[in-house]
Write a structure and sequence with these properties.
By secondary structure, this protein is α/β, with parallel strands linked by helices. Helix content is 42%, strand content 21%. The chain has an eight-stranded mixed β-sheet, sandwiched between helices. A two-stranded antiparallel sheet has the order 3-4. Strands 6-7 form a two-stranded antiparallel ribbon. Strand 9 and strand 10 form a beta hairpin.
Length: 283
Amino acid sequence: MNISYADKAQVLSEALPYIKKYYDKIVVVKYGGNAMINGELKNFVMQDIVLLRQIGVKVVLVHGGGPEINETLKKMNIPSKFVGGLRQTDAETVNVVQMVLAGKVNKDLVNLIENSGGKAIGLSGIDGHMIEAEKLNDELGFVGEITKINTKPIIDVLDAGYIPVISTVGCDKENNVYNINADTAASKIAGELGAYTMISMTDIKGLMRDINDPDSLISSLSVSEVPELVHDGIISGGMIPKIQCCVEAIRRGVNQVAIIDGRIPHSILIEMLTDAGIGTLFY
């Protein structure tokens, strides 16, 4: 696609106030969904993150890796079972979760960022006991509920000029490792860091008034409006926990939270550096 010099100038002119707005601010990106398994989209996401870091935004990337965990468990003939949207995680499964998330997925993302011209360091919630947790309940096994976030390892990496890439496994003082929901981890990390913005990448356009009407996107709303939307059934099913994480991040001091469609190339830049934005913005 050919873009005229005038159009390029207009894009840069529109982006400038947002570059100033986000300069030296912390932005937490929760990365998952189709943008994580589609190779082309993955490259776009890493390029966006590198560009943001190069213009002075302190990006923290928090990732899951459900599809890769499923694939590895299948190869090892370990069945996957979900309860209320959370993976039932026995001792054998949590070892696989740690191996895949803190190992392969995390290091693949670090490598992509480096090859896109950025500087990244991979961390897990175990490093520096960044994510401390306890068992959520006996039925789910080693699925963790976060009890404490230690931000020092993240801040140290940011201060050294690197992009922290964080896999969502947690730990306790008895050497147990826990599988942590990535949305929950991102919201708590964003809150503890005092992040300016949290961006949650999903496989939907955002919050819709009518799931069957693509033009019914709610572009922005206050967290005070959320209970009514839940009551009316506009927020339902799997969107409820995602929205709850957005609300929690705001209540922990994050200025704004955006749910964006990770299936759209450069959706992070569209959300952060244009007037129109993309997805649903919570404030």
